[in-house]
Design a protein that fits this description.
The strands form 3 sheets. A 4-stranded antiparallel β-sheet has the order 1-8-3-6. The relative contact order is 0.11. It has 2 domains: 12-160, Jelly Rolls (Sandwich), CATH 2.60.120; 172-244, Arc Repressor Mutant, subunit A (Orthogonal Bundle). The chain has helices at residues 8-24, 44-53, 108-113, 134-143, 145-171, 174-189, 198-205, 209-221, 237-244, and strands spanning 55-59, 64-66, 74-80, 83-88, 94-100, 105-106, 120-123, 127-133, 225-228, 231-234. Helix 6 crosses helix 9. The longest helix is centred in the middle third of the chain and has 27 residues, at 145-171. By secondary structure, it is an alpha+beta fold.
Length: 247
Amino acid sequence: MHKTPINCNFISETIDCMLEKSHKHDSCEFCSARKESLFGSVHHHDLDELDDRKNCNFYKKNQPLFIEGSFPRGVFCLNGGKVKVFTRGNEGKEQIIHIAKEGEIIGFRAMLSGETYKVSASTLEECKICFIGKEDFLNMIETSSVLRNGIMKELSKELGERAVFITNMAQKSVRERLAFALLILNDIYKPEEINLTREDLANFVGTATETLIRLLKDFKEEGIIEIHTRKIEIIDLNELDKIAGTR
């Protein structure tokens, strides 16, 4: 009996379309990422308005959200996946300054300042992201004291964390910086293993990829980490703390 061959591309496109449609109709009220975001405490009537105005889509790996020097058009609420926020040096090398996880809102700082983006952002993996236009987001801030207070707390918290991050990255050796970066990434990725390319990890630590690979090998031989292809599993958090000088 002759069998009609299965069109895999068609099936894949159909599934993608179904997933995209499903995500676009996700309700903010029942969003699992919302409780970790700035929208976690807003009132239900504000969520209904947000549902009407947001635009949600799937993003592929390495897809840019915004580019340094461009003007903000709105904010991005990360529903699933990871996004890197970075700058580029004179020679075009990236310096990753933050990795955003599910629940974070990206891009509101530049929008509030009225300036162009001082950083770029792109996806590290497949992501589900909701976009809220500039005017709609600013109107929500104006009418929602809960959201406004949440943003103030977030900016204050970020200022302190960024000061600690810059101090550690500026004053420590590469080995100490790698230990400090792994501690940060462990909190971002847990309960999963750290899953970054060696180039991205080097750009987060602020070192050459070759140096990073050598230090990872040292950490593995010392029993501090395990490496599973690209993924990194932390075995000894206490030793990482000691190396990073955080205890």
